């Protein structure tokens, strides 16, 4: 089971040695190759990696093909079972790869992604939503209407930034790779995720091991590229975008947007004593249901208490949302398709 980690550099990339060092340090048990693509290497990226240069395979392109096409070249030249796309401003963490590979055991999962933290350790993204106007929003980011706990559990998402993706190489190639129409950058990741969705495949958020993304600051040049790519994205997916959530100038309902692909929204209302053994058992049962189908949303509603955080951490990988409230009985759960009262 081999994994090729691919990172594409363009222009000055001082963060590249840090990215490669983290990949080397946190390789884990999987057989792993690291490929660095430069396009072209006018900044001495390879030499700038020092002792790490011998740990990577270098593909030097003579021109700037763009993020997507350069990654496509690297995938074509490797023969591993899996490929991981890793931005040169990303730092992976201990144990990052194994849960993502495990998620790909589900044949319907095309893309496995971790949450992204910013350089200060704050949640920047736990998957993204694509709106009907072609725009996107990072769930859990600075503009998301709800808090950390509303998004930090395993589930299927519209897409996620390709700053860190893991895919089966065969799946990537069967989907056609990154579409060159988005070169040099932006929206090639949302496009490939949409292609996967259109073929019955999904992007799965795997929350076990977040990684750190030292995102490059926005500039007018980058914004201009993003606008052009968004226009191409809207044109290509004009037939499917109307099925996506609408974004109102007055904002949007985070829960409804987050769960817009879920068919079932099951709520377990725990009406017993807070922090009791019965509450822990109710969480086990709800988590077992959540793990059966990540496309459904299963929410356990419990009274506030000191053990809630532990329940969330214990069961978030299963896809269970744990919602803590002051009064379980007074909570409006009209958004649910099924409500169960437990713990009486």
Provide a quick synopsis of the model.
The chain is α/β, with parallel strands linked by helices. It is built from ten helices and 18 strands.
CATH topology of the largest domain: Spore Coat Polysaccharide Biosynthesis Protein SpsA, Chain A
| Number of H- or I-type helical stretches | 10
Percent strand equals 15-25%
Fraction of residues in helix: 25-40%
Shape, per Cα inertia axes: globular
Widest sheet: strand ordering = 3-2-1-4-12
Counting helices, strands and paired strands, the structural category is alpha/beta
How would you state the average pLDDT, rounded?
Answer: 92
Number of domains: 2
How far apart are the first and last residues' alpha carbons, in Å?
48 Å
Sequence of secondary-structure elements: EHEHEHEEHEEEEEEEHHEEHHEHEHEE
Do you know the CATH architecture of the largest domain? Answer: Alpha-Beta Complex
Kindly provide the name of the CATH class of the largest domain: Alpha Beta
Low-confidence stretches: none
Largest sheet: 5 strands, mixed
Q: Which value, in Å, is the CA radius of gyration?
A: 21 Å
CATH superfamily of the largest domain: Spore Coat Polysaccharide Biosynthesis Protein SpsA, Chain A
Number of DSSP strands?
Answer: 18
